[in-house]
Amino acid sequence: MKLISIIFTLLLFGTLCFAVETVPSNSLKANIFEMQYEKVACRADFYTATLDSVQNSGLNVSVDQLKSLIDMHKEALKVAADNEDSRAFNDALKLLQDDSKQLIITYANLKNVIPRGVAGKEIKTKLKQDFNSNMDTRNSCIKDTSIVLGKVQLEYVKNWKESAETTVENLKAKGVDTSKMEEIISDLQLKIDTMDDVLATDDVNQIEIARKNIREEHLHIWARFQIARVDALLGAIESKATEKGLTVQVQEIRTLLSDADSKVTVGKAYDEGEFQQVQETLKQAVTKLRSLFKSVN
C-alpha cells in the first residue's frame, strides 16, 4: 500500500463526524451514554495505535503531543458520558475530531522523512502492516459496540412503549379518548419489530442505520404521543372551559400543539433543533393546560 493510500483510508474511516444523541431521561440513559463512549473510544484508540506505529518506526517525527491530546480528550469524553452531559460530550467529540485531522496531516508529512531505498521500503511495509492490524481491531470494536448499543436503544424503546401503554390504560379508565395515542403506539410496534429483525442479522452497517432510524422515529413518536395526550386531556375539559368563557385559553393550547405537531408529522425528517423546539412548546402547552384545569375546577 502506498503512503497516500493510507492517508485516504484515514480520511475515509478515521474522522469523527457524529455528535452524541439526545437521550430521554431513563434508567437506560447511562447505558446508552456508556456505549456511545465505547464506540468513539474504538476510533480514538485506533488513532493512538497509529501514532504508536509511527513512533516505533524510527522516523524523526514527534507524536507525543498529539497522543497526549487524544488521551486528554478521550478522558473528557468519558467524564461527560459518566455525568450524562450531552453538551460536554459533544465538546469532547469536536476536540477528538480536530485530533483526527491533525493525525491525517502528520501521516501526510511522513513522505518528507521516509528515506529512499531498502530502508524506506521496510518502514512503509511495517507501517502498512500496523495500519491494517489496527484497522481490523478498530472495525471489530465498532461492530461489537454497535450491536450492544442497538440492543440497549431497542430496550429503551420497548420500555417506553410499556410505560405509554400504562398511561393509555389509566386515561381510558378515566373516560379520556385515547384512540390517537393507541394508534401511535401501534405504529411504534412495527418499528420495534423491524429493529428486532435487523439485530438478528449481525450486520453492523444495517444495525447502525436501523438504530439511528428507530431513535429518530421514536423521538418523533414520543412527541406525537405527548401531543395526543395533551390534546385528549384538553378535549376532556373543553366543554367546561367553553362554559366558563375560557375559549381563548383553549385555543392558545391548541395553537401550541399544532405548532409542535407540524414539526413531527409522520414522514418528516428528524431535526435535532426542531425537536428541542417541540420539547419547549410542549412544556408551554402543559403549563397552560394545568392552569386551565385549575380554572375550570
The radius of gyration is 26 Å
Distance between the termini: 77 Å
| Major sheet | none
Low-confidence stretches: 3-25
Q: How do the SSEs run, as a string of H and E? A: HHHHHHHHH
Task: Estimate nothing, just give the exact number of structural domains.
Answer: 2
Question: Count of DSSP helices?
Answer: 9
Basic shape: elongated
The share of residues in helices is over 70%
Beta fraction: under 5%
Structural class: mainly alpha
How many strand segments? 0
Q: Mean of residue pLDDT?
A: 86
What is the element layout, followed by pairings?
Elements: H1 3-13, H2 29-56, H3 64-82, H4 86-108, H5 117-173, H6 179-199, H7 204-243, H8 247-263, H9 272-296
Helix pairs in contact: 1-4, 2-3, 2-4, 2-5, 3-4, 5-6, 5-7, 6-7, 7-8, 7-9, 8-9
Care to describe what's here?
The chain is mainly alpha-helical. The protein has two domains: 144 residues, no CATH class; 123 residues, no CATH class. 81% of the residues lie in helices and 0% in strands. The protein is elongated and about 95 Å long. The N terminus is likely disordered.
